[in-house]
Amino acid sequence: MDFGYSSNVAEQPDDEAALQLNEEDQQTSVKPSLGSLSVETLRTILREKKLRITGEKEELIERLRHPERETSAQIKNGIAHNLLTADYILQVGLTWVNIGEKRQKVRIKANITRFKSFYGVEPRTIKDAYHSFVDLSDEDDTSLKDFMMLVEWLKKFKQFNPDDTESCMTSRWQLDEKHIGQKLKKIGKKMQLASKQIIVLNFSGFDTKEIITLSVDCVNYPTTEFRLDPGVEWFDHKSHGPGLKYEYALSVHHPYCVWIRGPFPAGKYNDMSVFWGKERKNQPKAEWNRDALYWKIPNEKKVVADGIYSGCPDKVMVKRVGHPEWVTEYLDRIQNRQETYHERLSNFNILSARFRHGKSSSEKMELHRMAVEATLFTTT
Question: How far apart are CA 314 and CA 324, in angstroms?
């Protein structure tokens, strides 16, 4: 099976990986080591790769060997798309979690499995996510290493000891708990802003012949108690504890999420109320929240959802008795795709474990929304 990775990525020397000669040079000469090159030659190579050319010789060599340490603002004009390949991210990603080059000399499939156990997704997904992050960020100072540190935190989040996750990360990322926490929050907010630019509902981008355009469903994520604002409205019947509810919509004929709304107290609204924007029982339709998905769907379009949405036949299509078999199978595939998407998100512990950050209820909801949107950006 072809995974799109070269088989000898772990065996490639640093100097060969950093020094890319043109084809004519490769045919007529042996690649010199970086240490044997002059400062002027090193700066010429750096300039071609659109990297910084300032510093002593040792700094220039280090910059060529580890371009991922450059910030996204510095690499925005070329290096992210030229050097930060899936192969390279696989190699350095494993190195950062203390799986060195010698231990990487195994089958590519084994290395990818190791990578996913720390970061939740394949190197190709990280590559695409970071490239998008670079393109969408303006004057940003986030390096690939910092970006992947956040992704690992989203994946390996632990709910019990408040300092447990950060403490486990100190040896891998060479930072103390305080600085790790500060970096995670800073980068998470930047990733949240970037996600808002790609998760956009725009029906003008759909084919005019499409009638069934979206699939929609709500998901509850567990949290710790809202001690400053206790109440039954937070109770999630699925996890038997407090939680927050989000509404997602996926494009049926395109491979991406186009809508997210939340968080809401898990026990305050059912899925149908969130879809309608109905904020209290017996509320007149004229007073429903116009920011809800129901009001965004054109009259000639429909979305697919499960049976709880059966009370809205004007905008929602659900499985019903009497449907032809092919219609039932079609709706099943759409709903299964939606469930698979939610399962991919819950693969990150930040969403499947009880979220514990934030002192007040509003701060906890704000930070949880940041974590959700950062996870969405990583996987979208």
Answer: 20
Q: What is the Cα–Cα distance from 200 to 257, expressed in whole angstroms?
A: 8
The pLDDT profile of the chain, 380 residues, written as one tens digit per residue, is: 334 454 444 444 444 444 443 433 334 334 467 778 888 888 888 877 767 777 788 888 887 777 766 655 555 544 545 667 888 899 999 999 889 889 999 999 999 999 999 999 999 999 999 888 888 876 567 888 889 999 999 998 875 554 566 777 887 887 888 888 888 899 999 999 999 999 999 888 788 888 999 999 999 999 999 999 999 999 999 899 999 999 999 999 888 899 999 999 999 999 999 999 999 888 999 999 999 999 999 988 999 999 999 999 999 999 999 999 999 999 999 999 999 999 999 999 999 999 988 889 999 999 999 999 999 999 87
Helix (H, G, I), strand (E, B) or coil at 343: helix
- Specify whether the CB–CB gap between 114 and 103 falls below 8 A: no
Q: Residue 58: helix, strand or coil by DSSP?
A: helix
List Cα–Cα distances, 207 to 72, 116, 200, 313, 354, in angstroms. 35, 36, 16, 22, 40
CB neighbourhood size of 11 (10 A): 12
Q: How many CA atoms lie within 13 A of 166 on its CB side?
A: 15
Preceding peptide of 263 cis, ω within 30°: yes
Contact 349, 158 (CB under 8 A): yes
Q: Which amino acid is at 304?
A: V
Supply the pTM of this predicted model: 0.78
Listing DSSP states for 80-107 in one string gives HHHT--HHHHHHHHHHHTT--TGGG-S-
Q: To which residue do tokens 């798309």 refer?
A: 81
**Which of 338, 337, 302 lies closest to 317, judged by CA?**
302
Instruction: In whole angstroms, give the CA distance from residue 157 to residue 238.
Output: 21
Angle, CA of 100, 103 and 105, to the nearest 5°: 115
Q: Which residue has the tokens 């949405």?
A: 309
**Triad 349, 355, 358: Cα angle to 5°:** 140
Q: Select from 210, 196, 211 the least CA-distant residue to 374.
A: 196
